[in-house]
Specification:
Elements lengths: L1 H18 L24 H16 L6 H4 L2 H14 L12 H25 L3 H30 L3 H14 L16 H22 L7 E2 L2 E2 H16 L2 H18 L8 H30 L3 H12 L5 H8 L2 H16 L14 H4 L9 H7 L14 H32 L4 H20 L9 H28 L1
Antiparallel strand pairs: 1-2
Helix pairs in contact: 1-2, 1-6, 2-5, 4-5, 4-17, 5-19, 6-9, 8-9, 8-10, 8-18, 8-19, 10-11, 10-18, 14-17, 17-18, 17-19, 18-19
C-alpha cells in the first residue's frame, strides 16, 4: 500500500515539476531556499518531493551517465574557490558576510544540480522522455494563455483589465506586470523570452524540420508543434526582449544549417546550386526576422532603440550606442568582472563574492548617467540585495577563476558530444533529439550572456534532457550489440 501511495505521489510531483517551470519568481519561498533572491522557481517544491522519493534512491540503484560525472570537477572547483576566498580578508557589505554569500551561492548551485539530476534519472526511457516534453509544453501553454491576456492591454491599454491581471500576477509572482511588455509568469519580459527560446522552441523546430511529433495528433505534415511554435514566436515578439529576439534569429539560422540536406557531391553544379540555395535561405530567414522585428517593435520605444539611434544621432559611436540601448550598467558589470578575474585569475574570489569587490574593481568612468550603479555603490537602509555580473561566463571567471571556467567548459563540451552523438544517429527518433539538443545549446550559449543564476531551471533542464537522451541511445546501442553478438 505504501509503495502504491509513493508511486502516485511521484507521478503527481513529476507532472507538477514540468507544469510549474514557467513560474520562476514565486512569491511564497522560504528564506533558506533563496527567499531573498529574485530567482524563485516554483518547480523547486515538486523537485524536493522527487528528490526524496525517487532521485536519491536512484543514485544507489543505477549507474550514472558519464556526462553527469563531468560536472563534478566544476563543483569541486567552486568548493576550492570558496575555501580559498576565506583567506582574502573580505569585509562584510550591507550587513552580508562572506560566509552568507558563499552558502547562498552553493545552495543555488545545489538547486541547479538537483534539477539536472532529476531530469537525467527520471526520464530514463522514451515514454517518460516524451511525457516530460508534453507536460512541459502544457505548462508553457498555460503561460501563453496568461501572456495572451497581457497582449490584449498592450494592443489597446485598458486600466481596468490591467489592474485585474496585475492583482492575479501578484498572487504568485514577486513583481507587477509591465504596461508595454508581457512577462508571462516570470519576473520580467527577458526571463519569459529566454525560457521560451531555451526550453521550448528547440524541440518545436527540431520536430517540425525532422517530421517528428511528440503528440499523437497529426494531419498530413501538420502537427501541434506548428501551432505551439507560432504561439511561442508571438509571445517572444510581445516581450520586446532584444536578447530573446537574437536567440530566435540564432535558432532560425542554426535550423537552416542543420536540417537542410546537403547537395549530392557527385554533381558539382548541383553542389554549387545547393550552397547558393542555402545562402539564400539564410538571407530569407534574416529578412523575415528583421522585418518582423521592425513591424512588432516600431511602436515600442524600448525595442525601437535598436535602429532609432542611427536615425536620431548625427555623431555616432559603438560605445554611445550601447549607452543609448541601456547597456551602460551591463558593460560596467562586465568590465568589473574582468578586472576581478585579472586580479584573481586562478581560483577567483569565491562563489557569490563578486559583489564584495564590485566598487573596488569598477572601472573609472562617470556614474551620473547610470543611476543603477549609483544605487549599488550608495547603500540604503534596509537594502541588502547585492549585485551580480548578469553574465554566466563572467561570473564563473570572476568567482571561480580559470579553474572554474575550464571545468565548466568541460561539462559543456560533454553536452556537445552527447548532442552530436544523437544527431549522427541513424535512428530517426535519436536524430530528432540530437537536432533539438544542438539548437538548445546554440541558444543557451547566447542566453548565458544575460543571466548568471545557477538556480534558474532553464540551463539545467535542457542539459538534463540532452544527457538523458544520449544515455538512452547509448544503452539502446549496447543492447543491440549484445543481442547480435
Amino acid at each position: 500500500m505504501l509503495k502504491f501511495i509513493l508511486s502516485w505521489i511521484e507521478k503527481l510531483a513529476w507532472v507538477a515539476f514540468w507544469l510549474c517551470l514557467p513560474v520562476t519568481s514565486f512569491r511564497y519561498f522560504p528564506a533558506g531556499l533563496g527567499g531573498g533572491t529574485l530567482v524563485r522557481p516554483l518547480s523547486l517544491y515538486p523537485l524536493l518531493i522527487l528528490l526524496i522519493i525517487a532521485v536519491i534512491p536512484s543514485l544507489f540503484r543505477r549507474p550514472l551517465p558519464k556526462t553527469v560525472l563531468t560536472l563534478l570537477p566544476f563543483v569541486a572547483a567552486l568548493l576550492i574557490s570558496a575555501a580559498a576566498s576565506t583567506w582574502l580578508g573580505i569585509e562584510p557589505v550591507l550587513g552580508v558576510s562572506v560566509s552568507d554569500r558563499i552558502i547562498r551561492a552553493l545552495i543555488t548551485l545545489a538547486i541547479g544540480i538537483s534539477f539536472y539530476l532529476t531530469v537525467v534519472l527520471l526520464t530514463d526511457n522514451p515514454k517518460k522522455f516524451y511525457s516530460a516534453l508534453r507536460w512541459m509544453m502544457l505548462g508553457f501553454g498555460i503561460a501563453f494563455v496568461w501572456g495572451s491576456l497581457q497582449v490584449v492591454y498592450i494592443l489597446h491599454f485598458n486600466p481596468v483589465l490591467f489592474a485585474k491581471l496585475n492583482r492575479i500576477q501578484l498572487l504568485f509572482s514577486i513583481r507587477k506586470l509591465f504596461t508595454t511588455r508581457i512577462s508571462g509568469m516570470t519576473y520580467e519580459p527577458n526571463w519569459f523570452g529566454e525560457q521560451i527560446s531555451v526550453l521550448l522552441i528547440p524541440w518545436l523546430v527540431a520536430a517540425i524540420f525532422s517530421g517528428q511529433t511528440i503528440f499523437p495528433w497529426r494531419w498530413r505534415k501538420i502537427t501541434l508543434e506548428w501551432f505551439i511554435l507560432a504561439w511561442a514566436v508571438v509571445m517572444i515578439g510581445f516581450t520586446f526582449s532584444r536578447a530573446a529576439y537574437i536567440n530566435l534569429i540564432a535558432i532560425g539560422l542554426a535550423a537552416v544549417v542543420l536540417f537542410r540536406k546537403p547537395p549530392a557531391r557527385s554533381d558539382r553544379k548541383r553542389s554549387i546550386w545547393g550552397i547558393i540555395k542555402k545562402g539564400g535561405e539564410v538571407v530569407i530567414v534574416l529578412l523575415v526576422f528583421v522585418v518582423g522585428g521592425y513591424m512588432v517593435g516600431k511602436n515600442n520605444v524600448f525595442f525601437s532603440r535598436i535602429w532609432g539611434y542611427w536615425l536620431e544621432k548625427k555623431d555616432t559611436s559603438l560605445e554611445d550606442y550601447f549607452q543609448y540601448l541601456g547597456f551602460g550598467a551591463r558593460l560596467a558589470y562586465v568590465n568589473t568582472a574582468l578586472n576581478t578575474f585579472q586580479a584573481y585569475p586562478l581560483f577567483g574570489v569565491g562563489p557569490g563574492n563578486y559583489a564584495f569587490f564590485f566598487e573596488k574593481m569598477l572601472p573609472d568612468q562617470p556614474l551620473a548617467v547610470m543611476p543603477e550603479l549609483l544605487r549599488i555603490i550608495s547603500p540604503e537602509e534596509g537594502r541588502n540585495r547585492l549585485i551580480t555580473p548578469k553574465n554566466l561566463y563572467l561570473r564563473i571567471l570572476a568567482e571561480g577563476g580559470l579553474f572554474g571556467m575550464a571545468t565548466f567548459c568541460a561539462f559543456l563540451a560533454a553536452l556537445v558530444g552527447c548532442s552530436l552523438f544523437l544527431w549522427f544517429s541513424k535512428d530517426y527518433e535519436e536524430h530528432f533529439w540530437g537536432g533539438a539538443a544542438l539548437l538548445g545549446l546554440v541558444v543557451l550559449a547566447l542566453a548565458a550572456f544575460s543571466f548568471d543564476s545557477f538556480a534558474l531551471p532553464n540551463m539545467w533542464v535542457l542539459s538534463g534532457l540532452i544527457t538523458a537522451g544520449s544515455w538512452q541511445a547509448y544503452q539502446r546501442g549496447r543492447s543491440s550489440l549484445s543481442s547480435t553478438s
